[in-house]
Automatic annotation (TrEMBL), chain A:
InterPro entries: MoaE_sf (IPR036563), Mopterin_biosynth_MoaE (IPR003448). Pathway: Cofactor biosynthesis; molybdopterin biosynthesis. It comes from Hymenobacter metallicola. Heterotetramer of 2 MoaD subunits and 2 MoaE subunits. Also stable as homodimer. The enzyme changes between these two forms during catalysis. Belongs to the MoaE family. The keyword rRNA processing does not apply. Its EC number is 2.8.1.12. This is Molybdopterin synthase catalytic subunit. Gene3D superfamilies: Molybdopterin biosynthesis MoaE subunit (3.90.1170.40). One of its GO terms (biological process) is Mo-molybdopterin cofactor biosynthetic process.
Automatic annotation (TrEMBL), chain B:
InterPro entries: Beta-grasp_dom_sf (IPR012675), MOCS2A (IPR044672), Mopterin_synth/thiamin_S_b (IPR016155), ThiS/MoaD-like (IPR003749). The keyword Cytoplasm does not apply. One of its GO terms (molecular function) is nucleotide binding. Belongs to the MoaD family. GO terms for cellular component: molybdopterin adenylyltransferase complex. One of its GO terms (biological process) is Mo-molybdopterin cofactor biosynthetic process. This is Molybdopterin synthase sulfur carrier subunit. Keywords: Nucleotide-binding.
Amino acid sequence: MHIYLTDQPIDVAAVLASVQDDGAGAVNTFIGTVRNQSTGRRVVRLDYEAYDVMAIRQMEHVAGQAQEKWPMLRQVAITHRKGRLEIGDVAVVVAVSTPHRADSFAACQYIIDTIKQVVPIWKKEEYEDGSVWVAAHP
Amino acid sequence: MKLKIALFGIAKEIVGSASLDLDTPDQQSVAGLMNQLRTQYPALRELSSLAIAVNSEYAADEYQLQERDEVALIPPVSGG
């Protein structure tokens, strides 16, 4: 598995290349990008903070769980960005390769959904008139 | 014992520091530490969720903390 946390722009092509596998007939990719609005407020940028060592460990766990659920998985790559991101920037890339496409969709979705639940990374949305830590309060 | 607790995101803002040195009973569980922190910083009670990580893994409520543990307070995550 190829797991990275970086404060530099993510090279999506490099993440895709890392899951290339001669036994795979499918590569599925999820790319999370920074949107310009949230619950009706205009977002000007995002600040991502990470507990680096634990974030990498938890991303490894998520990839490992996906490999248990989909034993046919050939390669898994996850790269998450941290630091200041502007509108349109790539925040996260998940890529998987599998022999057939159905498993690649399912595994990719499982990985991004689980990342959002367990990986210790925090997103602060900056608006023109303030900022909010996303999901902090009910 | 003395614990050093790493803080992130909104928990860092609530406490006002990236890490917290805390005096806590020698026999302290994760649940006990959570209660101690919520008493000391009531704003932590208003969060959607709160977890404690020990040595980069989520810790169960009954885990008995050791002074050498690397402890972190994990407010609601929002990566992706």
